[in-house]
Amino acid sequence: MPDRGYLAVDGPVAIAHRGSSGDHPENTMIAFADAVAQGYRYVETDVHATRDGVLVAFHDHRLDRVTDRAGAIAELDWGEVRQARVHGREPIPRFEEVAEAWPDLRLNIDPKADGAVAPLIAALGRPGVLDRVCVGSFASRRLRELRRALGPDLCTSMAPGEVARLRLASLGWPARSFAADCVQVPPRKYGLPVIDGRFVQAAHRRGLKVHVWTVNERAAMEWLLDLGVDGIMTDRTALLKSVFEARGLWPAEQQGEAT
Predict the structure, then answer these.
(1) pLDDT digits (tens, 9 = 90+) for 51-96
(2) Which residues face 57 on adjacent strands?
(3) Is 211 considered catalytic here?
(4) Measured distance CA(35)–CA(85) in Å, rounded
(5) Catalytic annotation, pick one of 17, 24, 48, 211
(6) Cα distance between residue 58 and residue 76, in whole Å
(7) How far apart are CA 90 and CA 92, in angstroms?
(8) Is the Cβ–Cβ distance between 47 and 57 less than 8 Å?
(9) 76-79-85 Cα angle (round to 5)
(10) Which CATH number among 3.40.50.1000, 3.20.20.190, 3.30.470.20, 1.10.630.10 corresponds to the domain 157-247?
(11) Which of 28-32, 67-71, 117-121, 172-176 has the lowest average pLDDT?
(12) Which of these, 195, 209, 212, 235, could form a disulfide with 230 (CB 3.0-4.6 Å)?
């Protein structure tokens, strides 16, 4: 597969999960700004669409868990959602705000609901956005719809079914080709290991980069880098930066501009 701007970087990359969510309210402009100020050039975010089609950076289907308001985002207009405050103090940003605030920032995006797909397609069609994003989802149909609409220039990670096939391939089972450009997985799932040396090697033999989420302990970060993974997502951005610095991986691999 051709290089995508999101993936066209040598060496492992550090990815701020929902921004610097260990220190600031998740998926807010202050969390993203803190990660950028530390030198991060990759952030992960989630998106939902409001009832009137505004795409917002937010993880949950409902406002209840992290904001001072309640209700399903898909059942509320933007005028209502914009009044909510994450942790009682930070507004929910529109996705376009995040994309426009840092034109060189690479964005890992998870559309959390079917209703977010069409607004996300529209957002990624704007100039200067598509080449610096990677889209991942637990829903295969969302990825298929995005791939159909945006074509081969869209970078996507694997849906769970593809991950399972890659895991089997790492154990010696035959595997068909993959539509994804990279694989983004947790270290373990349902108590079983996903990541090990064979998995990383199987991905690399197929030209797929491996990103691991969400890793918040130093020992796990060190172990994954020793395995040769290509990226680590974390809530603890200062900690991951220190691990990269100790290995001489920061900031050179993080400062390449989107191509």
Answers:
(1) 999 999 999 999 999 999 999 999 999 999 999 999 999 999 999 9
(2) 47
(3) no
(4) 20
(5) 17
(6) 14
(7) 7
(8) yes
(9) 85
(10) 3.20.20.190
(11) 172-176
(12) 209
87 a catalytic residue? no
Catalytic position from the list 24, 48, 59, 211: 59
Written out in words, the top-level CATH class of the domain with range 18-154 is alpha beta
Domains 18-154 and 157-247 share a fold: yes
Q: Where are the domains of the chain?
A: 18-154, 157-247
* pLDDT tens, position by position, 180-218: 999 999 999 888 899 999 999 999 999 999 999 999 999
C-beta of residue 231 within 8 angstroms of C-beta of residue 17:
no
